[in-house]
Amino acid sequence: MLKKVIAFSTIIVLLLLSFSCKDNVLPKPASYLRLDYPVATYAHFDNQCPFAFDMNAKAIIKGEKDCGFTISYPKMKATIYLTYKPVNNNLNKLLRDAQKLTFEHVIKADDILEQPYLNPEKKVYGMFYQVDGNAATNSQFYVTDSTKHFVTGSVYFYAKPNFDSVMPAASYIKNDMQRLMETLEWK
User: Which of 12, 36, 125, 133 could staple 110 via S-S, CB 3.0–4.6 A?
Assistant: First the structure.
């Protein structure tokens, strides 16, 4: 009986050893999502409104009421909203409203960077805001000539705010918004 138990145990050990000989398991290396966006090419946009600007040629622009526009990026699920307001002795109110709109995001924002913009030759003055963090908008701006015209712009993504996920698209559109702001001219 002892010989049978020893023989049986030896067979079990040999079977376990033969099935346990496999390649070493290695962890997979970390991978990152790669998002390639087309190189931005810009086209001049002009219509009956009192201002004109350059915009990304791949974006889709739609006119809204009172010289407001939506500039859509369907593949990125984002839209830039442009709003025009005439200045009628209400410049301080327009400035406060534009700044209030930006700083309403301070609850979710990690940081809000302000970049002043001055172009005395074209009489375009304004501020560009970059909102870092999980805020509803990542970029906003306003421009004015201080006497007649006031334009605001903000970008919104059709997704739950998660800065890490939308960062590549937000950076791409931020560059487009800065180009739009810097090329804006009054008629």
Answer: 133
